[in-house]
Please model this.
Amino acid sequence: MKNIFVLFLATLLGSALLSAKSVEHKKVKKENLKEKHLKEQMQREKKFAKEQKFYQGKEYDLSAQKVDPKDLDSIPIIEPENDFDMSDVYRDDI
Model:
């Protein structure tokens, strides 16, 4: 009878230790997952900040690319040579 009690007590303590380790493992795994997601989000924010810096265009000097409106008058207007008529496409008598 005493052996059964000792065996029961050992089994109970063993299962308690295993469950404690399991809970601790889950906590560590959860913390690692949070840290991983945090790093990924920080990388996304760095990328977003870099893109916004590009789209804002504050660092770029585009004054050399400006067009003088007086120069636009000297460019000839190109008229289309063939005025395509869609009514010919739908004719039955062709």
Q: What stands out?
A: The two ends are 109 Å apart (CA to CA). Helices lie at 2-56, 69-72.
